Amino acid sequence: MRKLLDAAAVEFGEKGFHAASISSITQRAAVALGTFYTYFDSKDALFQALVQDMSAQVKSSAAAGIAQLHDAGEPSALDVEQSALASFLAFASEHKEIYRIIDESEFVDPAAYKAHYESTAARILERLQAGADKGELRDDLEEAHAWAVMGMNVFLGLRYAVWAEGADESKVSQLARSILERGITK
Amino acid sequence: MRKLLDAAAVEFGEKGFHAASISSITQRAAVALGTFYTYFDSKDALFQALVQDMSAQVKSSAAAGIAQLHDAGEPSALDVEQSALASFLAFASEHKEIYRIIDESEFVDPAAYKAHYESTAARILERLQAGADKGELRDDLEEAHAWAVMGMNVFLGLRYAVWAEGADESKVSQLARSILERGITK
Amino acid sequence: MRKLLDAAAVEFGEKGFHAASISSITQRAAVALGTFYTYFDSKDALFQALVQDMSAQVKSSAAAGIAQLHDAGEPSALDVEQSALASFLAFASEHKEIYRIIDESEFVDPAAYKAHYESTAARILERLQAGADKGELRDDLEEAHAWAVMGMNVFLGLRYAVWAEGADESKVSQLARSILERGITK
Amino acid sequence: MRKLLDAAAVEFGEKGFHAASISSITQRAAVALGTFYTYFDSKDALFQALVQDMSAQVKSSAAAGIAQLHDAGEPSALDVEQSALASFLAFASEHKEIYRIIDESEFVDPAAYKAHYESTAARILERLQAGADKGELRDDLEEAHAWAVMGMNVFLGLRYAVWAEGADESKVSQLARSILERGITK
DNA sequence: AATGAATGAGACTTCATTCAT
DNA sequence: CATGAATGAAGTCTCATTCAT
Fold first, then answer.
1. Res D66: pLDDT
2. Does D135 sit within 8 Å of C186, measured CB to CB?
């Protein structure tokens, strides 16, 4: 039930899993306490559903941005990465709770936590290798490069989309692109 | 009391803040339940002390690595960053619980969480600007670059120091260095 | 509604009154949850109806056995008691849930519990006194004798009809008859 | 803890297992709710402890009566059975809750329920066989006779010790003895 | 300083019952 | 008559914290 999932996102985002209470979630959703158990088996089950829901939303938001890029002609590998980060920043700005929810999944549902980052890294790696195949990127790219890119993106999102109100997100994604392009040396 | 802090690191690392219990921590530390309150005011206070303790340990571990580098002659800016990451990977390998503890501080003590990353980023930024001053790094380096570097380091640590048993950590820090040196383009 | 009563007998027999759920009973009966309340006012009302239903069934089963006996000529008082026990054993074998349901009525509907045993004892007493009137049984028979006979029957039923699969029920009823006939002394 | 066990006997006796609440039991025992869990793992565990406690009490009460009998010279087998019933009636008079507690154990802890009656029957059978060995009782006594005797006792106890205030218990045990002695025939 | 029994607020979860369709 | 989603009271259990010893 959408109402409960949305209320849970807010509640978990504000309080974290343990401090959040089903009672408070149902109040936010404006349904009776017992109604919760018509839709979810337990607090854990709700949390897992929420993690999957948000994880899917980030992915599709990035995918949508990239698809749009392709509509306007073949983009370069760096264009693609910059767009992925931009989409992510936009999403995180809108759904600041995603950080706290993903982070807490480390405790509530460790498998989901690992799966989230591993699948994200895998998607990044695919894109990087496509760029290498086109001759735009280095030939030696491997999993660790994907994790490095993901780490950059995640922390830039935390700092400039979640913590900073009104940061210039397009500037941030250009900056990240320039690191990927030529590092930080002179 | 050192015994309690060590026991807490293990307990919080294994179970997370909420699932951890004072009773279990005192058992691990082989002291009576009530003794805990002679040394700490509350579970929260213990957690905060632990976060500061670990935060200080990471910092001094990185600082020690860099100091050593300076003993062998003036290192380059990239040498310094590579060494910082190597120290961090070594520390995280030894203290895998640090990730879970820092992550949970987001919920238990958000100020400490922010402070940890902000001060880490500040230190990185100082180093980067020193590199720029020496003419080794770009002149346009700013806070966001430091966050990007920190994000890379954190995620590489998660993937290769915490999750992967026996990964080749020196290879990882070289790989990160090469990204900082020239990005990922051909 | 027969379907609900039968489903309830199984459910209450398996789980006991409190662990049994209306939802599970309606599922067994293959009707919707709400339908239950078309036929019964409450869970308690269902249970009471069930107790009466089963109580009536035991009684009529014993009565039928005795009636059959009379068809074959005037039976002796001991013949009648033996037949009553045999009928009861047969019934209990078929409806093992009766013990649990009657036992639980002690908590759910204490009046029904008392009424069940008091009316059963009364019927036994009537038969015993008829036997005394015919000169076959002692003249001093009173209520307590009826309760003693009932206790024997109930426990033999528990042990040999409910708990023991495939016990020799006719042997059990003969054994009980011999106790009534001459006690257990040499 | 004795206070909790006694409070539980009253509470379970009055309301039955499910209607009884830990909260009400701790109130009767005049301790805080949480204190309960210092002494018992769960409501079930308390109930099991209580069943064992009461079961042990009945047994030792009967054993004490019989021991006393032996002190006054070798008793006959019928003396022993009569004494056992008398002890039981006295105990049940004092602890009317025992019936409800044992009955409910059928649902809460079926194994304990079975064990209670099986061990009781076993003790009766031993005594009966000792009587047979002495030549006082029949040679063909077997388990079913013990169950018959137990059933008599239990139902006489229910009717005259639990339900009837101030019944003449010695008359009841004499009556039971006379059934064992010569049955109910003329 | 150390101990650990006692405390009680708080949270999840169940399920009989209702009622609009 | 039948349905089943929604309700909310009630109850078990956990655990941080206190305090008398």
1. 92
2. yes
Q: Which nucleotides of strand F come closer than 7 angstroms to any CB of the protein?
A: 1-20
Interface residue B158 vs chain A (CB under 8 A): yes
Q: Considering Cα of A5, then A7, then A9, then A11, what sign does the dihedral take?
A: negative
Q: How far is CA C185 from CA C109, D76, D177, in A?
A: 40, 11, 11
Which candidate from B138, B149, B155 shows the least CB-CB separation from A150?
B155
Q: Tell me what percent of the residues of chain D surpass a pLDDT of 70.
A: 100
Q: pLDDT digits over D139-179, tens only? A: 999 999 999 999 999 999 999 999 998 889 999 999 999 99
Residue pair C147/C121 in contact by the 8 Å Cβ criterion: yes
| Segment holding D125, helix H or strand E | helix D110-133
Tell me the C-alpha distance between D41 and D53, whole Å: 16
Distance CA(C121)–CA(C125), nearest Å, equals 6
Binned at pLDDT 50, 70 and 90, residue A151 comes out as very high
Task: Tell me which residue of C153, C37, C47, C156 sits closest to C110, measured CA to CA.
Answer: C47
Mean pLDDT throughout D78-107?
Answer: 94
Which residues, in sequence order, are CB contacts of A56 under 8 Å at separation 6+?
none
Domain boundaries, chain C: 50-184
Q: Residue D186's pLDDT is what?
A: 83
How is domain A50-184 classified at the CATH fold level? Answer: Tetracycline Repressor; domain 2 (1.10.357)
Task: For residue C163, list chain D residues with Cβ-Cβ distance below 8 A.
Answer: 114
Locate the chain B residue with the closest alpha carbon to A103: B103
Question: Could you tell me the distance in Å between the CA of residue A23 and the C1' of nucleotide F10?
Answer: 15
CA B178/CA C14 separation, integer angstroms: 69
Give the integer Cα–Cα distance in Å for D115 and A55. 55
D111 CB within 8 Å of a chain C CB: no
In 3-state terms, what secondary structure has residue D68? helix
Average pLDDT, stretch C63-67? 92
Closest residue in A to B131 (Cα) is A185
pLDDT for A37-65, tens place per residue? 999 999 999 999 999 999 999 999 999 99
List chain A residues with CB under 8 Å of B121.
Answer: 159
Other Cβ atoms closer than 10 A to C5: 17
